[in-house]
Queue: 4 jobs
Job 1
Amino acid sequence: MSAADGPIARVLEHFHGTRSSGTGWAARCPTEAHANGDRDPSLSIGVNPDGHVLIQCHRGCDTDSVLAAAGLSMADLFPPRETKGLGTPTATYVYETADGQPTIRVLRFVPKTFRQQHWDGSQWTWGLGGATPPIYRLPKVLAAVAAGQPVIICEGEKDVHAAERAGWVATTNAQGAGKWRRDYSKIFKGATVHVVADNDDPGRLHAQAVADQVAEYAATVHLWIPPDHKDLHDHLAAGRDVRDLGRLIPEEAPSGPSTERQLMGAALMALAGQIAAAANDPKRTSKQAMTYVRELVTGLDVPEAEITGLHELHSFISTAEEEFDWLIPGLLERMDRVVIVAPEGAGKTQMARQVAIMAAQGIHPFTFEQIPPVRTLIVDLENPPRNIRRKTRNIVRAVEMERAYETGRCWLWTQPAGIDLRSGSELKALHQVCEMTEPDLICLGPLYKSFLENGEKAETINGEVARILDNIRATFGTALWLETHAPLDTGGGRNLRPMNSGVWSRWPEFGIKLVPHPDDPTNRLLTLGRFRGDRDERDWPMAMKWGARWPWQPLWSEEEVESSIEVLKVNPPRQDRSYEADESSNVSWIHGTNAS
């Protein structure tokens, strides 16, 4: 196996004094145990038949110490799996955190193509996984800056390794020209920095923008360019020295109205170059070239689907049952979805408030038993704040009769004009509210005011909204309690299914309909029916009646329902307006008139 094949190519780049020796290589051991710099190389490097790199120090240094000193990890010694349509990587570059832990790695393929993986704690997984790449060789850069040594910033990992072989500390950013982040520049506070441009328009634009940002923190910044070669690697490979670089005069660099615009221009120019190269690459078919271009334009860095949820059946069912992650014991588990449907004025909004406020105070909303409190968020898309104050105050007062009310656990976001979850700015506002309140349970409604209709089919709109809500549920680990109105049927009555029920009848774990009891003359007693079967057995009441202390009082049996109806016939409730006495409330508020 040659040094160009598999992970051995990257491993050899990390060692000095490397030379062929028998069927492998000899190199200087980089650990501190070698006070003289290991001038007589004591490190043996080889490759077994499956491509696994073998390292041994003949003076007793353990492999972990050797790898740490060289800026490698054990994972770098093993060949990455084949990637569909791309073959085996020709180079692999590992990016590390400040304390030397692997975070992402960049794989290079032929034709020139790059893919990223992130380290999940046990293995490399495709994509960045939400990780923000640090600069390359970060631990070495931090050490050099602290020691007052100069640092080179170039474009590309191959250039970094070339500079290191020449005895310099060097770095770059992942993903090429135009991807330098402002946070990187702060690392170079007080340092002497040499920025080396690639010898093309995107490279010069990128280098100028990086130099401008780094100059805000560094003591001195010099801007260089290889006068006769395309990059620093080729410049050094031709036998030239870093000191032979030519100065890049800022006035000669393509300039824009701002550093950010320069970086954007560099990124777009680099992208255009990659697209042109792909279109003219004879090794790619037209279909392969179009696929690659699509990935470049969309920013897709995952060549294969990441398969999750695949299990061998017998092993899957043999796993011990996980405990329920209850929010409301026996009723609602984390990540559950509940949709409550009823006619206007039936009391479903007040039921949602009761659930949210009581659960946040550690009271079961239906059994009134003590439970562990959870964080809740009420998103009211219909009612003005004054109305909400009146209707929630009596619930808070009832809680205070039981215990001291704990503030900061139940939050209310009022958007009486509604929001459009399909709008980027308004969805972002909801995400920001969730980040601020960290809810375990979101009670939102009415559902029809969470989107705008633009002429699309109802099924299309509701399917998109359902996916958005599922994303919120997964992102924040929250359960959802949604309320929606019951549409009129063709006879003028009420069809107690959600509006546009095609999506919502399939979507929730629990689809509850509140049905007025036919024998109740006051419409203050509602039975809990189903517009879809429950996916799990839970302790839902049989019916709910309007209560004197709590807005809704649960009824658990036929006997309780019949007894309540008899009482209502003899002593119908009066309209209770005592809760309008004042304007104070202990509910925490996030109040706004719009979501933008």
Job 2
Amino acid sequence: MIGLALLLALQVDSGAKAPIWEDSKAEIRAADRELPSVLVDVPLQSRLSQPIRWGRIRFREKLISFSTYSAQNAQRALDGILIEPGRRSAALMALGCSRASGVRVLLESWAVGGGSMEQRAAILALGELGGQDSAFLLELAKSELPQIAESALVALMRLDSPAVRDEIDRIAADETNPNADIARSVKAFYASPEEVAAPESVKLLLELRWDAAVSYGLVGGKSRAQLRIEELERDPAFLEAVVLRSMRSLSVPGVEDHLLALAMAGGVEALRASALKIPRTLNKLYAEGSWEPANGTEWQAVLDAIDEGGARPDAVDLVRGALNLPSFRSRAAGLLVGMGDEEAATLLRDSLYDPDLETRIQACRAFGRSRNSRWAEELATLRRGEPNQRLAMAALVAQMRIGYQPADQQLRLIVLDGSQSDREILVEELLEVSEDQRVPVLLETAFPHLLGRLRLRVAADLVRRGRLLQRTELIAALEAGEEPDLAATFVRALRRVPGSRELQALTTLFPTHGIDVNIELTIALIDNNHTTGIALLTRALWNPPLDLSALAGALIVQQRGILALHQELDSPPTPVSEAGVRRVGFALGEWGGVEALEELAQRRPSHDPALQGAYLGAMSVRTQ
């Protein structure tokens, strides 16, 4: 690894004061605390706009390294058609830092033919590549573009060649050279880095070296994937979300009790999981006055889950309670209409003529749930003369959903022969009500005519509903990093119907950017009994609270059997507390019953915390 000392000053006078790159231990500790997580991607431009914090830079430089694998990973990324510009710049830098053979021509081509940032990255990467060939960079140092010239001069300084430094001296001394000032500023920084502000190209070099190591090299001897997984293992919120979002696949006695205990303790993930898994229990507690959502965020989570679960009547009291909250009244009335509540339908009728456009659109969608054709004329009246296409389309879709045959015909005409604008507005509305069984056929018909983001959203919805033809398109989008804010949605769709190729793609993608998509990827790995997914589950198993640990244990038993919990107790992580051992013992006793308890008792003394936990777990089953 090239040391930062070489970057800041090629020669140091041994009689001078201690140079800036020599750290005190206290500075290194402070930098360690401030070092940004590799899970948090701060945009490059934001970092470049900040002053250099040398303690952090020095610490980073001591961590990063590159290998031949770095070059291979970077080359694969550059071969991708849709790679993001920021990742492309880091890949170019990785090629230079890894000093891979045969990449000089590639870097030179990017240095003259890429976008502005890619050009500068390639130029700086040539400085990291080293070697004696300076002619190309000296030519770029004549550029009329100040940023290109400065990048070339910084790269030349990195070659550590007396002959090259002489050339830079000549440029700086030539008053007729338009880049003389740039050369002088670069020289001044390298001569006195503790006193002279760093040129922008030096800052860019430092940040790109870090990005290259994080994305394609090693940080502290570990790959980005290893670092991300370690951070996820230490993130309680991540582990909680993975366990709770996996609950729908569990159907063993006792799960509901743990789920309810977590929900009563508060938290959106637990409430959402409970409203999906045990809506009747939550509804009963609410009707009795024993519990209610604490705030708007919790109400939103509960209503979202009830909607996702199909708006079953066993949550009717909860939904009626939301009618009392102005921000949820329209949503709640819509859910109640879907449950057959005629009183709610009457209440909702007024919303069709509300001054607020979104309220009117939501009312149309709610009437579509009713399956009651008597509202067809009301919706037709709303559509007549309506200038807003979104509202008119929402009313037309609602008519189709309640069985009004002319609306069916009109929608098919729009999908097949309408303008692209009308088709896209219609598809946006269909995606909002895609739980209706009539919708997927229309979306499939529209799909070939769609482009970009909307096409991918439709692909995800169709794959989620079991259509298979669009899976390849979703995988390609994930691999290319398209629409990153939709990545979790794409993964959620693919994990519903995984084949061997889909599983391979999801495994390769994990871990990636964004907590939510990593949660969905982990669940996909768990569903397919993949070692990485199970390893993350075991982290939740060993961590508090007890209820979450027990649920993680249930998921492990579902995938790998009760023997997996015995094996965990035989080889616990280090360090481990007695409380942690007792929690895992509890899961063993609860999910393995008396048989697992007796087997453990043959190998453990009575005072052993694992056996104590197992007794409690086995007893809890008897009292359920």
Job 3
Amino acid sequence: MTNLGVASVSDLAEATPLSRLRHLDFLRALAIVAVVLGHWFLMTVARLPDGGLTGYNALPLLEDFWWLTWLFQVMPLFFFVGGAGNGISWGRRRDDGVAAWLLGRSGRLFPPVTLLLGAMLLGVVVAQWLAVDERFLAEAVGVIILPLWFLVVYIAVIVLTPVMCWLHRRCGAGVLGVMIAAVALLDIPRVALGVEAWGYANYAFGWLVIYQAGIVWGEIAGGDSSKIRIRVHPAVLFLGSLAMLVLLTVVGPYPVPMVAVPQTTINNPSPPTLAFLALAGVQVGFAAWVAGPVDRWLTRSRFAWRATIAVNAVVMTLFLWHMVAAFLAALVMVGVGWLPDSDVGTSGWWLGRLPWMAAIAVVMAGLLVTVGRWEARGLRRGGVRRGRVRRGPGSVRRGGQPIPDSTTPERDHPAHLRRGPGSVPLSRSGPGSLTQSGVLGEQTGPTAFGTEKSGPTTARDWAGRVLTSTPVVSAAYVTAALGMMWQNSVGLGPHGPFMVPTGALILVFAAATVLWLGRLCVGRSGIIPRVRR
């Protein structure tokens, strides 16, 4: 029985309601695994004439295989699933307020990031003490922080979730049409004139389109589609988007690869182009098309569902540390003389992919067993100290431990649970706690920060209100995103004593600390009370 440090995978599987939208968990795991395997496969390490090492992406040298990026560029699928899950979660916890919801989400998102950066800083200090070549060290740090670029955008869309859900309630799926039109219009000067600056706004519009599609799908899959006026069968969306993708790339002006390649004049994902949205349409259409069969398969197959839970329990660790695993595996293979051929496209290079990826997988497994336990602990706590909650008739406990309802990268992920005859309410505490009578019973214990209690307001009450206010929590999210963007936009270092800008590190750690303190304040009482209007 696999143990995650809080509850076994078997326990989590057995406690899963029949009404859970399991395909969302499966698609999230599939997306991250595909990204990881793609990065590992293309990463190539070579020896320099002076005996040093360098690493590079082999994709620019494999032009005949650029079309495979249509299969392995699955970040649209991740944003789609994130939109569905976050939309459902926000819909259920809207009455708790924006700050409570964001703090709940931060419990599984930020601790793995700070752990990665902390380990990186320690590694840099040790490497400098050992007099490791500065250029090599800067390249290593660049590889380690590479995955953070994706979190910049994802953190931004999480903050905007309440706004996007409000727009959906007011305007329905028309929000998608407006943003797609904006992407198309902003692409015109990029394609016709080669002016990339015109497309920078598509960093927002492009990713929000995909995220918003997830919010719409979450509503449809959850059985509430009152705002959907135009219905498109998933098969039609899949086939139509595929035809559009072929026309825009093979026939039209957009490049075929869906990742950044130096030879192309336009990078489809940076910022997202109309062709990239066509790829997203292919993935969204396919995901919606197979949702029913996948849900039934995961319900029947205990092994498949347990595997899905296990991957989701450490999905952030897998994503953030997969390049660290590749770097460490490369050092080991160099040390034992097993480094594969670096001449991309040769038979030696192709044959060397198998031992190369196997070595990385072994290192990654070790990291998941050690580092991954920090993330898996968030399945129960979500990074929030547990308040006193009276157990209701629907609580589920095994061995004295509450069984969480989330196997996702962020705490209290939906609920992609529809309440129905097969659902099993699960015990949980913290900002996202359900307090309805008959589910968990009413919250007991003191009310947080003196907003509902009598007596003078103390400094602790005031600090708690500040740390759990919507402006402060939202600002912490934005500050963390800016710090990560700063780290990834300056290019290879060294940029300061830690190879990356010190100011960027301060922003990320400061934001994570504010969110941790906010979760700590919430955990002492179990809830964030809303100010009475």
Job 4
Amino acid sequence: MQKSSYSGKLIANNFDFGKFWNNNIIGEATFNARIAGTGFQSSKVAATLDGNISSIVLNNYVYKNIKLDGEVARKLFSGNFSIDEPNLKLDFDGSVDFRNKLPIFDFTANIERAYLTKLKVFKRDSSALLSAKIALNMQGLKFDELDGTINLEDLKYVESGTDFTINNIAYSSSKLGIQRLIKLNSEVDAELKGDFRLVNIESLANSLMARYLPQIVYNKKNAFTDRQQVSFTVNVKNANDVLSVFVPGLNIADQTKVSGEVNSALGKVIVNTACRYVTYKDYHFNNIFFEAHNDGEGLYLTLNIETIEAGDSLTLRYNSISANTQRDKATLDVKVLNTDSSSSRIEIYTQEDFLNDKSIVLRILPSTIKIENQNWTVDEGNSIKFDSTGILISHLALASSNQLLQINGKISKKPEDILNVDVGQFNLGVFNQLLSIYDVSAGGIANGTVKLSSLLTKPVAETDLKIKNLSYFGDTLGDATVLIKYINNDSKINFDCFVENRGKREVVLMVITK
């Protein structure tokens, strides 16, 4: 018999289509359908199907209550089906073709409801609900293989009582030789063009950083020989409705723009970003500009923020962070300039040396630190060393007149490594500009020590501080002694605070917890 044919009813109970078609996306199915066709081998079958699928496993989820009317021929399905179950209501019309190396999808679908977390699409709150109309004409499964278009209309997403609606999302991916073009048009417009593979983006970033920080970044895992080049533009038109669901409290200004180019062969990096504002809860960042570029010697980064506002009480003006790397060293400068008449102004200049043992030594160079009209200097012998065992801090001392704040010691996982903070004649009022965020105002002159250990595992803290003329919102309470002992291993904290005023000693707070 050269060719077999059949017609009638086809009933299956947990038939494994994954093994039959050698495909790990589809699994077992139970169905009852009318069938007519020819061939039994997966490479030769050609049949029409009309019936009900009680259950079928796709991407590790069991879909139920499916009505099917279509044709199956050599790993090709063409026709329509509908699903109506508690987690998904969907109408599909089109084809899915697995006959070639790359699958081809050509269909329209109307999703009336899809509980994405329950369907194991992603991990979010179980209330995550999507509805949309989809038109897809695409080849490939993996992101770097995709060639074609995806259009979504009337998309609505609801999660935990918050929702957003997007009228249209258009995605296209095409290739011409080695060049690839990806476009996205919606609340965010984006374009990527060049010879690139998104799956290698992390390796590409490591390779570029290894060019400028070889002692720190480079190792065999970061060796990257695949040459890639990509130019990109991103224009944020209206992303805040989406952010309100996925990142509550974050808002990004319309018309935020990001553009740039990366070329691994040339070690070329160019990034430019302009944004009118970004807010997160009570923090506001206004007029933000970021730039990154390189020359033959180094990589240069600059971030400028015109104002940073924290609540209604703290505003920092003319803020900038700039850095450059040149293989075995770098500089990092942080500035909060405010205005010439401001009571606070900060210009901190640092130098980083990258040593052959993969450690980094940071030094704070002569800088301008003015806080609440007090000028502070930094001990020129300071150093902060980062290595695999922790962070070693030496001679990190800030002084203003007779005030001193000095840090020495090591931050690590070991309990025997102690970080010592010594405080001498320190005016607590210097913190009030920052504490105003929390509606706190304090004063007094502090002397004493703070000892910290095991900061990278289970912190242990011990303080012995004396505060002369402790005040709170301008009211002088007296001379205070603050004793704190915190041991993480025992989940225990002892907190003693007492004030002596006019020779009378009063316990203000004593806490012992376990």
